[in-house]
């Protein structure tokens, strides 16, 4: 992979759900990825907080990108856990994932999801997942 960002962006742009929900691939490296979501009313649940499913999607996809890049190509998440720390209140969510351990067959990744509101940044979720090559 000569150009990691171009490779990742091509995959991201082919994900219909990512496009539908309005997510953005902000940056990536050989073992990390950062995704963001501009919060809209349709991302919220009945109490006005961002729905856990939207937070979970963002963490899962960031983990898959971090692990997939660490493994050298396309990948799938085979196991995923998330802890919601506080309600996500803000105008933007940012998920920052890092491969903590990567071998030939799997990568273990962690992700922090932050709710942003102006200059305020609050950790709202922590996630961990196992990623394997898609082929």
UniProtKB/TrEMBL annotation:
Annotated InterPro entries = Acyl-CoA_thioesterase_PaaI (IPR052723), HotDog_dom_sf (IPR029069), PAAI_dom (IPR003736), Thioestr_dom (IPR006683)
- Would you say which domain of life the source belongs to? Bacteria
Which UniProt keywords are present, listed alphabetically? Hydrolase
Domain Thioesterase intervals:
47-119
Q: Hydrolase: is it a keyword of this entry?
A: yes
Which GO molecular function entries does the Swiss-Prot or TrEMBL record give? acyl-CoA hydrolase activity
Q: Which PANTHER family match?
A: ACYL-COENZYME A THIOESTERASE PAAI (PTHR42856)
Protein name (database record): PaaI family thioesterase
């Amino acid at each position: 992979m000569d150009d990691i960002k171009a490779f990742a962006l091509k995959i991201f742009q082919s994900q219909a759900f990512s496009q539908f929900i309005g997510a953005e691939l902000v940056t990536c490296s050989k073992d990390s990825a950062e995704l963001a979501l501009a919060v809209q009313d349709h991302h919220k649940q009945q109490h006005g907080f961002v729905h856990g499913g939207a937070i979970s999607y963002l963490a899962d996809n960031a983990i898959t990108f971090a692990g997939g890049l660490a493994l050298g190509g396309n990948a799938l998440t085979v196991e995923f856990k998330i802890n919601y720390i506080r309600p996500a209140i803000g105008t933007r969510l940012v998920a920052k994932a890092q491969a903590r351990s990567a071998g030939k067959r799997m990568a273990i990744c962690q992700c922090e999801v932050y709710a942003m509101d102006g200059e305020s940044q609050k950790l709202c979720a922590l996630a961990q997942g196992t990623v394997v090559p898609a082929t």
